[in-house]
Each structure stands twice: as C-alpha cells, then as structure tokens.
Amino acid sequence: MAPRCVADLPSQFVFYWSAQGHLSDLMHQFEATLASYQPLWNALADVDQHTWVLEPDVPTYSAIHRRIVLGPCASVQIVLDLRHPTSVPECRFLGADQTFALLRNFHFYMLHYFILFRDDCSSLVCNLENLLGISFPSPTNSKKEDFSLECGICYSYRLEDEIPDKACDDARCGQPFHVSCLYEWMRSLPSCQQSFNTIFGECPLCSKPLTIKVPTKT
Q1: Are the beta carbons of 73 and 99 closer than 8 angstroms?
Q2: For a pLDDT cut of 70, what percent of the chain falls above it?
Q3: Residue where one domain finishes, among candidates 144, 160, 185
Q4: Of 199, 195, 194, which Cα lies nearest the Cα of 212?
Q5: Does the pLDDT value for residue 54 go beyond 90?
Q6: Which pTM does this prediction carry?
Q7: Which residue range or ranges hold the RING-type domain (predicted)?
Q8: What is the pLDDT of residues 24-50, one digit of tens each?
Q9: Which tens digits make up the pLDDT trace of 154-194?
C-alpha cells in the first residue's frame, strides 16, 4: 500500500509508488520536488526581505502570494507563477481608486515591454519596480507601522482575516476601512443606495461620496 504524504507545498505532492517501493525512493522524489520549488521560494524570500509584506502574516511554503506595501493606504497583491516565479505576476491593487488611477495605466502600458525585455537575472522585486515605475518602501528606509493603519470605524488593524483595504478616494482624507465595517456603516445611512452589488454612500470621516462592493460574507 502506498504511504500517505502530507507536505506544505504550493501544489500537491504527487509521487510514484510500486509494490517494491521503498521509503528511500519516496524521499528522493520529495527532494527533487523541493528542488523544483527553490526558484519560487527564492523569489518570495527576495520579496520578504526587501519589501513590507502585509499578508500573509507568517508565510508558509505553500503560499505563493504576497500583499506588498506601496504607500499609506495602498498595497498590491501579487500571485507568482509556479513555473516562472520571476516573470510577470498577477497583480491586484488595493486602496483608494484615485491613488491607483495612474499606476494602473502605467502597469498596463509597461506589461508588454516587461515581458519582452525582462532580464532573467533580475530579482523579482527589481522587475516589479520596473513594471510599476515605483520603489517599494522597505525595512531599510521605513517602518511597517507607518503603513499598518487602523480602520476608521472599529479602530483596529486586523478584523479576523480582514485588514483595512478600502480607503476614502478623497486625497485630503484617505482614511482606510475594513470593507465589512464600511458595509455596516453605509447600511445604517438613510441616504445610502444600492445598485446590484454596489453600495453608494459616504465616508464616515469626511462625508465625501464613497462606493463599495457588497462583501461576499455578510
């Protein structure tokens, strides 16, 4: 009977086992699998060392995503390609829409050139900075506390598995909120309106117009 293997890896550990199999054969296959993931883990270690990572709090070997600080109330979540970890990752910008308007445009403009001219010897962080046209805040020039801002409603940073990732679009305010807190706040407003899965309300601090998507967990 084949042994049951559980491993903290980015994907399921698949191995070959025969009736004459030995645990040493299984170990060799596992070591080869670990070696195949090493470029991925090296790229993630580069991100962990040279940027401020908001999520995950404690990275595991199976986690191939990172949420990286871009600035106050602004971050980008990247998901790496298992086979090509230093190539273009999937990017999702989180924060005030106004903050990311130009950055998103630059990202889409540069994406084509990034694929064509990417230097395979460059680090993932260097490639990302070239792609986005920015320099990431890092442990060498900033403090993580400067970017871990509390929710303007519940006055906490982490709410179960949620962090404040919706910010007021007014540049003079920019206060971040948990989406779930903002959802409950807007529902209490007589002036709040909803169209399909979008809610139209106002910022609890500055009263400027603010829209959110209905949380999947309500």
Answers
A1: yes
A2: 86
A3: 144
A4: 199
A5: no
A6: 0.74
A7: 151-207
A8: 999 999 999 999 999 999 999 999 999
A9: 998 888 878 888 888 887 888 889 999 999 999 888 888 88
The stretch 149-153 carries a mean pLDDT of: 87
CATH number of the domain to which 187 belongs: 3.30.40.10
Long-range residue pairs from 58-67, CB within 8 A, at least 24 positions apart, any chain: 60/8, 61/8, 61/9, 61/10, 61/37, 62/8, 62/9, 62/10, 63/10, 64/10, 64/40, 67/94
In a domain, 131, yes or no: yes
Q: What is the largest CA-CA distance in the chain?
A: 72
In whole angstroms, what is the distance from residue 136 CA to residue 68 CA?
8
Provide the β-strand partners of residue 66.
78
Is residue 48, in this structure, part of any structural domain at all? yes
**Rounded Cα–Cα distance for residues 189 and 184 (Å):** 9
Given the structure tokens 């990275």, which residue do they identify?
Answer: 59
Answer with the one of 87, 109, 144 that is the final residue of a domain. Answer: 144
- Residue 33, domain member (yes or no): no
Tell the residue number behind the tokens 């920015």, with chain if given.
Answer: 134
In terms of domains, do 102 and 163 share one? Answer: no
Percent of the chain with pLDDT over 90: 28
